[in-house]
Amino acid sequence: MRTIIIIALSCLILSPARADEGMWIPALLNKYTIEEMQKAGFKLSAEDIYAINRASLKDAVVGLGREGQPFSHSCTGGIISDEGLVITNHHCSHSMIQAHSSLEHNYLRDGFWARDKGEELANPGITASILSRVEDVTEELLAAVATKTGEEREKALKEAIARVERAAEEGTNTRASIKPYFNGTRYFLSIFKIYRDVRLVGAPPSAIGSFGGDTDNWTWPRHSGDFSLLRIYAGEDNEPAAYAPGNRPYKPAASFKITTRGVQEGDFTMVFGYPGTTREYLPSFAIEQLVEVDNPSKIKIRTAKLDVIKRAMASDELLRIKYSAKAANVANAWKKWQGEIKGLTRFRVAEEKRELEERFTRWAAGKPEREGLVEQYRRLYAGRRDLILAWNYATEAGTRGAEVMNLIATLRRRFRELPDTRDLAAYRASLQETVDAFFKNYDAATDRQVLAEMLRLYNSAGLDEQWIPDVVKFPDPPGGHERLAADLFARSSFTDPARLSRAISRLDARSAERLQREPLCRMQEGIDRFAEQLRGSLSEIQGQLDGLDRAWMVALMEMQPERHFYPDANSTFRVAFGKVAGYEAMDAIYYKPNTTLAGIMQKDNQGIPDYNAPARLKELLAAAGNVPVCFVATNHTTGGNSGSPVLNADGHLVGLNFDRAWEGVMSDYAYRPEICRNISVDIRYVLFIIDKYAGANHLVGEMTLVE
């Protein structure tokens, strides 16, 4: 098998690259992609992008994450000054801005601009990872599992990964992460420096940073000034350090130069970042299940939740602040799932994959290691169908439905620590911090209505009886589901901050047990127990699918040596390249690739919160002229690429990636160059807002501007 993998990957490396599609590993650009990039217009070398022994563009790219999960990069950022100034999306910093906001200082509504470094705001738990190097460790890891299968293989692989990561970190101030590529047929080790002092420097008001809101999310044309500014701080030695007032701005090895020349249709563009997850090599059965079962069930549940939250936000300004980030988080995937269904259906992706599988079946005839792979996929996905539907209800309607369910789950886990806790006072204080953080942006009345909707959905979803946990079987409760939810909330300590704080202040083993006997807690526990059962069944199937995916990947490479394969995204450092281009969204509808400030004024509607442009912006329009705002290009991006620097052929910053066009959002599963577009805010609009709108020209002064 290892020999086959090496042969297949050799074919991969020798295959010709095609512009637009793919998320490439910068460390391997010299082997197979840089020539195609240069043919497309790129003027630099592979070493200018990625180098170990000298500064390169990779040193200016930042992966944003959280302590405890620094390698699950939620967003990307770019360093734009020699004092650690980082630019990323407004929506990437939304939770930070919200955490610092109040009715007195509503930074979401009004924006925030630090006048000097002393006013920059700390963000505990936020990390900024900067890549040092990447190494191929495939041979060592595959050797460790060469004679093993099933669970034994997975255990040996995890042990080998942990061993290699520890060895890479030993004696250094770095962190190591190994992730699989090509369905686990290849492995790369990434070495990072992870900075733990990240401060908020500037952010436009949401009326600029989120202009268009949920209405425009995942769509083009866009007019969002979706950017914010952070700063990385380090210790005196410029190395990672925990937050401290005496920390100094980080001195990067490289920072991006910013061009004021702008972009035009046909211009080369390149996106750096940490794309989250793509699944380009799934079989037809997976696509069918996604379109028919998985996405529709999640959309239905989130629609009900969003309806409740939006009514609450419309009723009260404080609730709008509290639930702004939450609503955006719920709506983001909700709208994306709808676009995926539309795109996968429109472009007949399942049908195309079935045609490939039919060709594969003919090719595999008489090849013992290849025959039967398609039939195995058919059987496994058939067994997964009911399980994934039940799982979506248990998680989306259960554990992630009403917010209080998540709080209960967290506290139940923490209660298990109590018998072994020596310092009870410190333990109680830690629990109280968790409770305080939860209730800061919580409204019990809203959450109660969400719970009522989730219970109603669970009992009207058409699920077979076996897939509904007993604790939520209330098809027709007296007084309806609203009365049931109200009763559960009234009888619970977990929905009342004062009652819960009193309970925590005198918490011991006996009182913790009493809390867990409350009806709402028993409901959460029942859902959690049922979800664990589902997780076990799904994990068993997924384990078989993982092995099948590896065999499928190798077989496809063997069958199609001329085809250009690229690794799925896995939250590791990648580069994508393409060009600025408009597109035909549907028959007779063609979208140009650029938008301007005039479009904001055309959309402006003071009666619609998503389109409520600030008065100051309108004043500036008359004096500034038609400033460019956003543009679309053919770069292959996904979640995690939010905030990614977008560069031109000279490697200069021209924009900031923040979204994809809805018609082509299925690109996580099937990229189509004629329809798939990434959306970026034009750096000229960013500079305009910082300088003219905010008057923060001291920040522009830190940057290196070129024509």
Describe the structure.
- The structure is a single chain.
- The chain is of the alpha+beta class.
- The protein folds into 2 domains: 1-273 and 565-707, Thrombin, subunit H; 284-551, no CATH class.
- It is built from 25 helices and 22 strands.
- The strands form 4 sheets. Strands 1, 2, 3, 4, 5, 6, 7, 8, 9, 10 and 11 form an 11-stranded antiparallel β-sheet that branches.
- β7 and β8 form a beta hairpin.
- α11 runs antiparallel to α12.
- It is globular, with a radius of gyration of 26 Å.
- The termini are far apart.
- The relative contact order is 0.17.
- Residues 1-18 have low confidence and may be disordered.
- CATH architecture descriptor of the largest domain: Beta Barrel
Q: Rg to the nearest angstrom?
A: 26 Å
Q: How many separate helices?
A: 25
Indicate the CATH topology of the largest domain. Answer: Thrombin, subunit H
CATH class of the largest domain: Mainly Beta
Percent helix, as a range, is: 40-55%
Distance N to C terminus: 53 Å
Main sheet properties: 11 strands, antiparallel
Question: Proportion of β residues?
Answer: 15-25%
Number of domains: 2
Question: What is the topology?
Answer:
Elements: H1 2-14, H2 29-32, H3 34-39, H4 46-49, E1 61-66, E2 75-79, E3 85-88, H5 94-99, H6 107-110, E4 112-113, E5 121-122, E6 126-136, H7 138-144, H8 150-169, E7 175-181, E8 186-195, E9 197-203, H9 206-209, H10 213-216, E10 228-234, E11 248-249, E12 258-259, E13 268-273, H11 284-315, H12 317-346, H13 349-364, H14 373-399, H15 403-415, H16 424-440, H17 444-458, H18 480-490, H19 497-505, H20 509-515, H21 519-559, E14 574-579, E15 583-586, E16 589-591, E17 594-596, H22 597-603, H23 615-624, E18 628-633, E19 645-647, E20 653-660, E21 678-682, H24 683-693, H25 697-700, E22 705-706
Helix pairs in contact: 1-21, 7-8, 11-12, 11-13, 11-14, 11-17, 14-21, 16-19, 17-18
